């Protein structure tokens, strides 16, 4: 027996009471249905192409949203941000009172006369903020730019040393 619970067919092998059925991104697609589901989604998207005149200009409304990696080792925290085609002069970094590091800038679109049929590159202004941990040594933050990748190195502050001492009672 098959029935539709959401927008895909289900059968006895699909248990929607299973904790693995739902994911943070929606319901779980069983591997046997994944290929059918992807094909159906692509067909639906092709059918739903809009003829609205502003849809051709939608890419202009999307801000540049660079990808980044966060990491740490014993001594430092790291932020690596992909900023292809940008120079260090086009990027600003600001540390606020609440220990928040903001990286911002603008990636300008080239001014050539080419009429693009498809655009995958992102252009425009961006701003990303990172809340730094309490043990971040904000006085010694370093940043370097090489090959379109911004690397920010945030040293960890030395933990206070617990020393044994005598306290006088008054």
UniProtKB/TrEMBL annotation:
InterPro entries reported in the protein's UniProt record: A-crystallin/Hsp20_dom, HSP20-like_chaperone, Small_HSP
Matching CDD domains: ACD_sHsps-like (cd06464)
Entry keyword Transferase: no
Keyword entries, A-Z: Stress response
Gene3D superfamilies assigned: 2.60.40.790
PROSITE patterns linked: SHSP
Domain SHSP: 59-170
Source organism, top-level taxon: Eukaryota
Location of region: Disordered: 32-52
Record-linked SUPFAM superfamilies: HSP20-like chaperones (SSF49764)
Entry annotated with the keyword Chloroplast: no
PANTHER family registered for this protein in UniProt: HEAT-SHOCK PROTEIN 20 FAMILY MEMBER
Family: Belongs to the small heat shock protein (HSP20) family.
Protein name: HSP20-like chaperone
Organism field: Neocallimastix californiae
Highest classification ranks of the organism: Eukaryota, Fungi, Fungi incertae sedis, Chytridiomycota, Chytridiomycota incertae sedis
């Amino acid at each position: 027996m098959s029935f539709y619970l959401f927008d895909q067919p289900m059968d006895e092998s699909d248990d929607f009471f299973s904790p693995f059925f739902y994911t943070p991104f929606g319901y779980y697609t069983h591997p046997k249905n994944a290929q059918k589901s992807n094909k159906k989604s692509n067909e639906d998207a092709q059918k739903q192409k809009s003829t609205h005149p502003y849809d051709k200009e939608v890419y202009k409304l999307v801000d540049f949203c660079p990808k980044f990696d966060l990491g740490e080792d014993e001594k430092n925290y790291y932020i690596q941000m992909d900023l292809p085609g940008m120079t260090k002069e086009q990027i600003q970094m600001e540390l606020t009172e609440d220990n928040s590091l903001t990286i911002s800038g603008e990636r300008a679109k080239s001014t050539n006369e080419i009429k693009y049929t498809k655009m995958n590159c992102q252009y425009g202004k961006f701003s990303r903020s990172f809340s730094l941990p309490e043990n971040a040594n904000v006085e010694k933050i370093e940043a370097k730019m090489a090959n379109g990748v911004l690397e920010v190195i945030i040293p960890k502050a030395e933990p206070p040393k617990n020393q044994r001492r005598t306290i006088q009672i008054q």
